[in-house]
Amino acid sequence: SKLKKNYSVIQNVLKKGQLEEGIQGSNTAIFTPGNTSFETSKKFSKYLNTVLICENEKQTECSEIMKNYEIKYNTDLKPVKLTLPFTVLADGSLYMIRQSSTNKGETCSYTHYDCIRDSAGHCVKDKNGNETPNNWVAYNCGSIIFDVNGIQKPNKYKHDVYEIKIYENYTEFTDWKPMHLKKEVEDILSDKY
């Protein structure tokens, strides 16, 4: 399946980066603390058959994709526009890289500022109508959102879009109902679906 192929591509890139940087077993070879998402995207892309690397919409060849591409959730949450640096491969698949905002030399962690969310992913409001804050420290180095068929529709989580969190020593699929549940993706990878 395209999911398996892309998952394998990601794992291979992380391993190649580890070998080249000489830091076996650490995903910081690619997701180096202190780097920007674009710097990480360039490091990631150097191991792939890349046809386009985009930092933002100011690049002429990237502006049309960024203007028209959006990812749909599995709930009624509004679709999100493409704002992350991304790479397009020769086979058309699209990889969006999010580097966690950490300082150089630190481990992979960052403070995530969010709200308490209901099962559909909406922010829960207090009695005064304000979003209820829910901030926490996340220990991932970043994440890769990938679309197995690129800009072709449906561009929807669990259909052709998936997210993998990159930790210092391992990776795992995001486990959030509006995107996909980790178990569902693992079942697809193991041919249970």
Task: Please identify the structural class as seen in this structure.
Answer: alpha+beta
Shape: globular
Tell me how many strands there are. Answer: 10
Portion in beta strands: 15-25%
Subunit organisation of the chains: single chain
How would you describe what is shown here?
The structure is a single chain. With 193 residues, this protein is of the alpha+beta class. It contains 4 helices and 10 strands, in the order H-H-E-H-E-E-E-E-E-E-E-E-E-H. The protein has helices at 2-21, 37-45, 60-68, 182-189; strands at residues 50-54, 70-71, 80-81, 86-89, 94-99, 110-112, 136-138, 142-147, 161-166, 171-173. A 6-stranded antiparallel sheet has the order 1-4-5-8-9-10. A two-stranded antiparallel ribbon has the order 2-3. A two-stranded antiparallel sheet has the order 6-7. A hairpin with a 4-residue loop joins strand 4 and strand 5 (94-99). The longest helix is centred in the first third of the chain and has 20 residues, at 2-21. The protein is globular. The termini are close together. The relative contact order is 0.18.
Question: Which tags fit this structure?
Answer:
10 strands, 193 residues, alpha+beta, six-stranded antiparallel beta sheet, 24% helix, globular, two-stranded antiparallel sheet, 4 helices
Give a brief description:
By secondary structure, the chain is an alpha+beta fold. 24% of the residues lie in helices and 21% in strands. Strand 9 (161-166) and strand 10 form a beta hairpin.
